[in-house]
Amino acid sequence: MIKRDKNNPIITIKDVKPSSEDLIVMGVFNAGVTIFNDEIILLLRVAETFKEKSDKYLFAPYYEKGKIKKKSYKLNDKSFDFSDSRVILNKARKKIEGLTSLSHFRLAKSKDGVNFEVAEKPTLSGKTKYESWGIEDARITKMGNNYYILYSAISQYGVLPSMIVTKDFCSFSEPKTILPPENKDVVLFPEKINNKYHLLHRPVPFGIGNLDIWLSTSDDLVHWGNHKHLLSVSERGFDSGRVGAGGVPIKTPHGWLIIYHAADKNNNYSLTAALLSLEEPEVVTHKLNFPLLKAEEDYEKEGFFNNVVFSCGEIVKKGIIYLYYGAADDKMALARIDKKKLLNLLIEKDK
Amino acid sequence: MIKRDKNNPIITIKDVKPSSEDLIVMGVFNAGVTIFNDEIILLLRVAETFKEKSDKYLFAPYYEKGKIKKKSYKLNDKSFDFSDSRVILNKARKKIEGLTSLSHFRLAKSKDGVNFEVAEKPTLSGKTKYESWGIEDARITKMGNNYYILYSAISQYGVLPSMIVTKDFCSFSEPKTILPPENKDVVLFPEKINNKYHLLHRPVPFGIGNLDIWLSTSDDLVHWGNHKHLLSVSERGFDSGRVGAGGVPIKTPHGWLIIYHAADKNNNYSLTAALLSLEEPEVVTHKLNFPLLKAEEDYEKEGFFNNVVFSCGEIVKKGIIYLYYGAADDKMALARIDKKKLLNLLIEKDK
């Protein structure tokens, strides 16, 4: 059903120049995808950290007024837990105090969808106080002449779904926060439904509720309401830990096709698919009860965070879905699916 | 500065008739407050549970299609943790599986603001699937002829800020979810500012961020955006654990006066105050660095949940703020503050 590209991984950290001399690239993954000027565009998430290492300190990068600054943590400071390589944990508050890497967005272009030219410099970086710990996981939706980039803004204030608009990937609107924290995996439908814009998102609740996908509506793309629960984790199995939207929903005669990520309770990620009603996207009409793709190849099983396949976008070309996905949180990979076969599978499997 | 009413607590469970014969009232607290037809109106949160007790089972009430149903948990079922009297905890998921009591809203009316007549029957109960575990902590804002009731809808899907509108407290609009989960302590400003409606809310983040107060704007009261961080917990002291909005912000020449709750890291609650800029309410101009009121009286220190003072509303009458508050999560109490003195305190203390 799904075929990995033989050149996988198609982009790795070797293909990405650090944004300054004192930084190194830790990962390039979870790219938003669209078509612009007949080229396939990836808006890559590039994670960087300081080149300088020390036995006594951990150096964490962050943005302040658009510049990258360094925060030093003493490794023997008992108030912090450094055991998770991705985060600095404040033990007393049981809260994340900072990230060990800082993400920005980098443009990459391709004619064939496999060989990409990666921009030399960051395309978008953390700008506001809500982005001081970086920007992550873009999804790009085209409507009219506008490209809407939805992403997670990260800072001490939380994880906030945010939006930037562009017509040309050269000049960009100011960022706007579109949902309160803690929430991520936001993606906009490519057209209005029942005269409203629609959005998928994945709240991260503290006490009650699971890591499920929700649907909301808007008249202006900035203010969102009518929040509805859409798609649940399962009791057990590959999607029992979390689910979250992937790329832009694909309109088909059978409904809105969504390819989304799932993980089990041990953070083993996979990609799977569902169909939502065209007229009432709050209704899930069909859903696969198995993964389309799970971490099986070495480049998916080993990396910055192991056993992750995570998609923020796909394009459809001559009936083939080009599914771009982050592998083990540090590389970009590509897999292809025949759209018709996937639709048949969805419709049959749910009978 | 603040004076408790000599009749405190002014409403207790003895004053509230259960909504059916098989239920008992566990608490009456956290009432929304407004003035309607020259009377002071409280929209009480009434928490109930089943009268029937068993050594082998815990019986949890919930709403299904507007009716109260019973769910039985075996007390020897090792998958649950029953140690917190308020909730049933799923040990594997580390998530709340259900509540031990079910809350609805009950109207109470008074001419003098001290002696209240409590309605015989529930005024509003859980109606939608987002309210199957009850409705909690109403705040009432009057604009034009409409009263906007903002509250927390509780269910397996999470804690969702929701809104119901009424003109007469007899007929009510359908509930609408206005912010995604997990979020609570929502209250609407009593007028538009810069041509936008404004809302205070308190997200409950999982991984990053604190239990802080946020501000959002809307054109239509249903769709919300431009989420801004407003007021933080402190590093230490009475407000180091959480803060959350109380009643409707009071317009004064010095700014929007907000009386809000705070708690330290051990869940000792108090009430305190701040001033927000009239024109730019995202700016906190003054803030008390001590409690106005903390749990000191027996009825505040002992109850369903100890050491809680929690306000969802106040009214101002001849320069006196009548601050209504829930005490120990099971009674209603009243305290009075001279508005002018409080404003002077705020303005002086912040110099």
Query: Mean pLDDT of chain A, nearest integer?
Result: 96
Distance between the termini of chain A: 19 Å
Please identify, by name, the CATH architecture of chain A: 5 Propeller
CATH class of chain A: Mainly Beta
Shape of chain A: globular
Number of separate strands of chain A? 27
CATH level-four homologous superfamily name of chain A: Glycosyl hydrolase domain, family 43
Indicate the radius of gyration of chain A in whole angstroms: 19 Å
State the low-pLDDT regions of chain A, or none. Answer: none
CATH fold descriptor of chain A = Tachylectin-2, Chain A
> Which two protein chains have the largest interface (Cβ within 8 Å of the partner's Cβ), and how many residues from each?
A-B, 45 and 45 residues
Instruction: List the helices and strands of chain A in order.
Output: EEEEEEEEEEEEEEEEEEEEEEEEHEEEH
What is the percentage of strand-forming residues of chain A?
over 45%
The number of distinct structural domains of chain A comes to: 1
Report the biggest beta sheet of chain A as strand number plus sense, adding barrel if it closes.
Answer: 6 strands, antiparallel
Oligomer: homodimer
